[in-house]
């Protein structure tokens, strides 16, 4: 090859690439208005990081709390404005160059996540429960995350009045990721959102003030297993790309149902290979089942729920579940409806063992946080029953269930933070004996939450369970409903057992005390009770709202 | 003012009385009985106004309707509070409020020394309101409300002296037995709703023509069950005798004149249903015939004056039920006998109450005797009632009972002969036991003794507030039957509602009347031979097997005990056994196995992240394999 030729090749390529680049790279078209909820929360999280860097230590707590609450309120207002503007129904569309869907389910779930996040932030900010340490009020989080547990450094940090106010921006980042997760409209956005909300959660789990070793162990387990699950998900995404030649939900769906046959000639060897599709989708679904805590991917749940600081547990249990189920719904209803006859039986089996497994193992638990963890596993099974309905009613029933469930969960974990003894929270069930005699109000509130978990009428748990079971039965999964009802009966046993323990047992002499919380936790619990009762007594408005939000944009 | 707007006031007046008296507290103790009596009288006066207004109209315009409000307005299920006043219900209204007012008046004297008199009048007013609601309702559901209401009032009044264990037990018994009948009524109403889609009288009764006989028979039998409970007919008769534990005015009003006739009202009101169901009709006549003999036989053996009268009530209602079961031949006479019976039986009970009032509440007739000298007014009024009930020519009972016996023969065929003969036999027994009551109480030697504390009774005539109602009722006993029968007045009055059919009697009216007279004389003579001619022992002789059985109410309670109570206990015990061993075994076994499973599964949760990861990996493998397998299948 002559030099000229080489040169010409070089220059041609260079010129072509330069010219092509100038011609082809368009400024992406970003609909900032429609993405406002997410942008506000992520922006506030960045501001939170800056506060950590520049605001004096003494003022950080107030500044962080203020920013977080304002951001969540503003983001919720943005969601309401979008919904009022018709983006949930008639104007539903796909924004940000096909990356984000703005539709009914997305807005409903974002609203739920934001409200649940707000309530959770209140419990994060609670500083009146732990005894005052060295003249400083302390919250549930460790003074300095980097200090070795029990070391002089940790004591020095406590003495100096340090506080891990980073939890606020961490929580905001997590919420930001959760907002994107159920509205992601391509597999890459989906994966990035998954990581954006998972990583802060791993960190948050490690930050408990008491029982730090347990907390760190939980965080490590959660991180390792989460990374393992993410690897599966990512591998699944790669396989799907190999099958469809695209990561866009819409395109993959069209390839699955055969509307499009070829996208990229380079992938001609793999495109349309059903093995890739089936294995890939199973792997992605597995990642999601891990996040919602479905059997057999649930084993992290009890350990992490028990070890994490209780406010974080409440937040995770509520918001993560909402986001992950939202993403699962979109994946199954938008990307894989053409594969319905393949995934339905599999999910059917997962739902059955999740409901039964969660309920059965919960019976022998002796720690209240582990008990609630297994309860959350059983509830994941109930929600899966709604997912399996594969009807519009199925979607709206799941949306309603998630909304109802998340407030009960945060409220229940908030009550757990109140019952304390010398070692911090008294989570062993035997300590709760006779609580109803000593603190009738707290015990009564907790009983309301337990009844809601059990699905007793006049609580939101009943309305939600009724909605998903009805949808499942109408969707042709009658046998699943029977299993669901049996699991509910088993689950009712251990919920009622706690109520019996609280109200009909003699209090122990060295029993725990019930701390009087600040208005922050009171608000969190109050909102939980109010939502539980309103959705139980007069659920129609919210059922209608969920019903109107049941259609995915494609 | 339109007269139909008055109908609601009929019910409202005593209801108001009940509310005021029961909620008013102690301060009404001094005037409560007058309030109660006055409001009962208000109902009677309104009833009279409506009655005279009705007389002024043509036969076809006489049915009035008043729609008060919609009770349960659900699509496809319309329950209205609406009233219907026609010839049939106005007859009942006058009987209930008229006799009711008289008995209120009587109770003022009778209950004078009872410190809970205000409450007693409150219950009486409650009863009147419920009973008027029962006969005025224009649909079966509202009728059911009244039906339950009278049951409640009856329960409260039988057990009014609740400090007596016997009264409390009797009240409970009446309530329980009535529940069986009430179940029949509720099932009948449900059947009506599924068959006709409504339970208002008019649409239901008009639609009977297009309904299958099977359904009508089912509804009819359920209505008969209801009637058996309320009207103390075999097999649900056992409560009536014990119900005499209540104060005597209650026995007179509720357990003789009005409430126990509700079953007759129900059957006559539902005549169209029974007309279309001959099998149900046959059952009605059989129940009536059996009960009229049953009650009469029991009445012969009782020494307790009120229980003897209770047996008689049962028997007389048996006549009415028999007549109602004859269909259009008998409806009119059932109601006519009901009204005349209301007069003379209420009078007889009030007379019995008057006797007890003078005899320190002694009820054993063997300890009476010769009372005619001490209680002349009671003797005369009771005597007129006696003549009326045995059917002495010219008195009320003669006309009404005679007609029923004729109608029974007119049923035709073998059935007619059997029913007619039973009715005749019943008339003979009636004459016998009523003569016995009369002779034991008012004739012969005085047989009362000082009791254990040395208090000898001093028989005396009762106060005016008690004798005046007795006198007024005696007028009814004497003249009502004749008044009704002249020119078949009563028949023409009721005919537009119940219709009438003369039937085809194998015997002439004169023959039947003659036969009735013959059996009447036989009955009276037998009683006189046994109780009039020779002294009566104070302690009852042992008597024949039948007598002893009859004294025990023909073993009704023994039968119920052996068959129902023991049977029920056995059933319960075996169910408890099954529950303990099988159900609890399964439940506890399930719980134990779930718990065991839980303990074993819990061990999988060992805390090692590596084993969690393995389980996840295994899960993912299974998930993928299952997904692929689904495609392969």
From TrEMBL, chain A:
EC number: 7.1.1.-
GO MF term (any one): oxidoreductase activity
UniProtKB keywords: Cell membrane, Membrane, NAD, Oxidoreductase, Quinone, Translocase, Transmembrane, Transmembrane helix, Transport
Keyword Oxidoreductase: yes
Subunit structure as annotated in this protein's UniProt entry: NDH-1 is composed of 14 different subunits. Subunits NuoA, H, J, K, L, M, N constitute the membrane sector of the complex.
Residue ranges crossing the lipid bilayer per the database entry: 32-55, 62-87, 107-125, 160-181, 187-208, 220-244, 275-300, 312-333, 345-364, 371-391, 397-419, 440-459, 479-504, 516-538
Cross-referenced PANTHER family: NADH DEHYDROGENASE (PTHR22773)
Enzyme class: translocase
Domain of life: Bacteria
Reaction(s) catalysed by this chain's protein: a quinone + NADH + 5 H(+)(in) = a quinol + NAD(+) + 4 H(+)(out)
Membrane topology recorded in Swiss-Prot or TrEMBL: Multi-pass membrane protein
NADH:quinone oxidoreductase/Mrp antiporter transmembrane domain: residues covered: 184-490
Protein's name in the database: NADH-quinone oxidoreductase subunit N
Alphabetical list of Pfam families matching this protein: Proton_antipo_M
UniProtKB/TrEMBL annotation, chain B:
Domain NADH:quinone oxidoreductase/Mrp antiporter transmembrane: 137-423
Signal peptide residues on this chain, from the entry's feature table: none
Subcellular localization(s) per the UniProt record: Endomembrane system; Membrane
TM region positions: 6-24, 31-51, 88-108, 120-137, 143-162, 183-201, 248-268, 280-301, 374-396, 416-434, 468-487, 507-529, 612-630
UniProt entry tagged with the keyword Nucleotidyltransferase: no
Keywords in alphabetical order: Membrane, Transmembrane, Transmembrane helix
Membrane topology note: Multi-pass membrane protein
The keyword Transmembrane belongs to this UniProt entry's keyword annotation: yes
Pfam families: Proton_antipo_M, Proton_antipo_N
Residue ranges occupied by any NADH-Ubiquinone oxidoreductase (complex I) chain 5 N-terminal domain in the UniProt entry: 71-121
InterPro entries the record matches: NADHpl_OxRdtase_5_subgr (IPR018393), ND/Mrp_TM (IPR001750), NU5C-like (IPR003945), Proton_antipo_N (IPR001516)
PANTHER family in the cross-refs: NADH-UBIQUINONE OXIDOREDUCTASE CHAIN 5 (PTHR42829)
Protein name: NADH-quinone oxidoreductase subunit L
